[in-house]
């Protein structure tokens, strides 16, 4: 993903680490811990559903972005 606004460029942060996946129950306040794959948070949902009967969940993916001045870049047409 690359977004441009005025003289700034927004792109994935190469130093931000991998995406972090997490899920939370929409019925109560319990939430999974963050993980670097979807699998663990999804297993948490199924275990939570089996334990509580709660069936609704919110899934979030956290990614890291970095803004850089375009004047510092030499690639691409203006
Ligand atoms: Zn719940």
TrEMBL record:
One Pfam family linked to the record: DUF7848
Top-level lineage group: Bacteria
InterPro entries: DUF7848
Location of the DUF7848 domain: 2-70
Official protein name in the record: DUF7848 domain-containing protein
Naturally occurring in which organism (per UniProt): Streptomyces millisiae
Source lineage: Bacteria, Bacillati, Actinomycetota, Actinomycetes, Kitasatosporales
């Amino acid at each position: 993903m690359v977004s441009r606004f005025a003289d700034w460029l927004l792109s994935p942060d190469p130093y931000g680490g991998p995406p972090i996946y997490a899920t939370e129950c929409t019925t109560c306040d319990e939430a999974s811990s963050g993980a670097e794959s979807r699998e663990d948070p999804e297993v948490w949902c199924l275990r939570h559903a089996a334990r509580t009967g709660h069936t609704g969940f919110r899934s979030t993916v956290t990614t890291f972005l970095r803004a850089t001045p375009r004047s510092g870049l030499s690639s691409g047409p203006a």
